Amino acid sequence: MSVWDWSVFFHNLVNPTILSGLWTTIWLTLLTLALAIMLGALVALVGRIDHLLTRGFYQGYVAFFRATPPLVQLVFLYSALPQMGIRLSVVEAAIIGLMLSESPYVAEIVRSSLSAVPVAQWEASKAIGMRPVTIMRWIIFPQALRIAVPPLGNEFVRQLKNTSLVSVISMTELFRATDNLTQANFRVLEALSVATIYYLGATTIWTLLQNAFERRNSRWFADAGKVETQPLAKTAAA
Amino acid sequence: MAAGLYNANAFLQLRDVVKHYGTYVALKGVSLSVEKGQAVALIGPSGSGKSTLLRCINTLETISSGTIKVGDEEIGAETTASGRRQHSAKVLARQREDIGMVFQSFNLFPHMTALENVTSGPRLVRGHPASAAHKKGMELLHRVGLGDKAGSFPRQLSGGQQQRVAIARALAMEPKIMLFDEPTSALDPETVQEVLNVIREVRDTGMTMLIATHEMDFARHVSDRAIFMEAGHIVEQGVSSKVLFSPETERCRRFLAGLTGSVKGAAFSCAPQ
């Protein structure tokens, strides 16, 4: 058996099992991250309510789900819950597990982004007569979003990689699809190289999208290091 | 001393307003009144309570005791037989609509253009349609001399320009009274004048206003009355020509003399331009 077989490599590249695994990885990442953002934002908003119980809930939630490994959470949901009479399908356990394990990170990002917007912005909005919900939606949220996007982009990359964990509960995503293939032909190097390329490709496309979004979202904000005080028109003319 | 100047029929009335921060007492029983259409200058050293007083009137701070009234309405809370009861967020928001506030640090919304900043109140608070808010916003920007900056973001504007947008933003809500919290203290000396000119124009429309400022020449020219505060007390108040030119109290005299000394050579003209 030769060290590297190009034909196996190219076959793997377009292998339907691998491509369908790639698709599973992508939708699983997007879906669970979207759910984690909703759940995390909700938890963060509850945590902002200035009350002993809500703050305690927030601290406890973040501590619990951040302190336990996502792999353990997944196996717990799929294999331990049935003992209590709760049976989740592989897909259900995968979605819930990846959502829960990611949510405390999102909650922390949302919490810190919201509190990074200066208090003076709240005061200026209140002074005009805006109500709290209006202030949050139109004044605080857009500014917090700009702060939250780079770390949330990191979470996408992390989540994409974490989807490989659901292979343990037998969900056929990119890694398990690749691994299955090697059981048949024992060409592990070519198979995992293909998986690596697809993971790399997905994160690269994401990074490009995120950069474009950040540029658009930051029109109004001076980039670090090139703070402008002059009107743009003058800068352009110079 | 100040009792004679308290007028129960005045437009803005503060009676025995006390504000604590923990054990620190920022306002130690302040009573004053402002008539409709009057401009009142609030002077005094840093930490004397000028900003706190303005923030209490706009309910950004909750007063510990006393009453504040604008027109016939008690601001921030209602005093009943059983004590003070804080207004709901909804009522506070409605009351603030009538009380315009301009901050030392401008506090424009950085993600909105100058025009969007000015129309934010009419659109987000009053629910005015974009076209109407836009038209009025442009009028206000022209009024403060920034008609050509409608599409600029705050970071593209100088401090003086930002403050003028902030004034237009407050005026867009058609407030009954305007509060200026050291509006020129954060500005470069060369942009101070443009902001003072705008404030003077607002004053000329008959707006009732309360201005905390260190610009004594400006205060002398623009205000009808002046209030000198120190350490949370009103030390002296009266007509500007008296308080700002020949104050009764030794403390106010020393304060004004100190200021004159420090700004000698940097005199600016208050002549209308």
3D architecture notes:
The complex is a heterodimer of chains A (238) and B (273). Chain A contains 10 helices and no strands. With 238 residues, chain A is an all-alpha fold. Chain A has a single domain (6-237), classed as MetI-like (MetI-like fold, Orthogonal Bundle). With 273 residues, chain B is of the alpha/beta class. Chain B has 2 domains: 2-98 and 175-262, P-loop containing nucleotide triphosphate hydrolases (Rossmann fold, 3-Layer(aba) Sandwich), CATH 3.40.50.300; 108-174, no CATH class. Chain B contains 9 helices and 12 strands. Chain B has helices spanning 50-57, 89-97, 114-124, 130-143, 159-171, 189-204, 216-222, 240-243, 250-262, and strands at residues 12-21, 24-34, 39-43, 65-70, 73-74, 77-80, 83-86, 99-102, 177-181, 208-212, 225-230, 233-239. In chain B, the strands form 3 sheets. In chain B, strands 8-9-10-3-11-12 form a 6-stranded mixed sheet, with helices on both faces. A 4-stranded antiparallel sheet of chain B has the order 2-1-4-5, covered by helices on one side. In chain B, strands 6-7 form a two-stranded antiparallel ribbon. In chain B, helix 4 (130-143) packs across helix 5 (159-171). The interface between A and B is medium-sized, with 28 and 36 residues.
Q: Of all protein chain pairs, which has the greatest interface, and how many residues does each chain bring to it? A: A-B, 28 and 36 residues
Tally of helical segments of chain B? 9
Globally, the shape of chain B reads globular
Distance between the termini of chain A: 65 Å
Helix content of chain B: 25-40%
Low-confidence stretches of chain B: 261-273
Beta-strand share of residues of chain A: under 5%
Strand content of chain B: 25-35%
The protein's oligomeric status is heterodimer
Structural class computed from helices and strand pairing of chain B: alpha/beta
**E-strand count of chain A:** 0
> Any idea what the CATH architecture of chain A is?
Orthogonal Bundle
Integer average pLDDT of chain B? 88
- Coarse morphology of chain A: flat
Name of the level-1 CATH class of chain A: Mainly Alpha
Order of helices and strands of chain B: EEEHEEEEHEHHHEHEHEEHH
The CATH class name of the largest domain in chain B reads Alpha Beta
**Relative helix content of chain A:** over 70%
What is the H-and-E element order of chain A? HHHHHHHHHH
Q: In CATH, what is the homologous superfamily of chain A? A: MetI-like
If helices are DSSP runs of H or I spanning 4 or more residues, what is the number of helices of chain A? 10
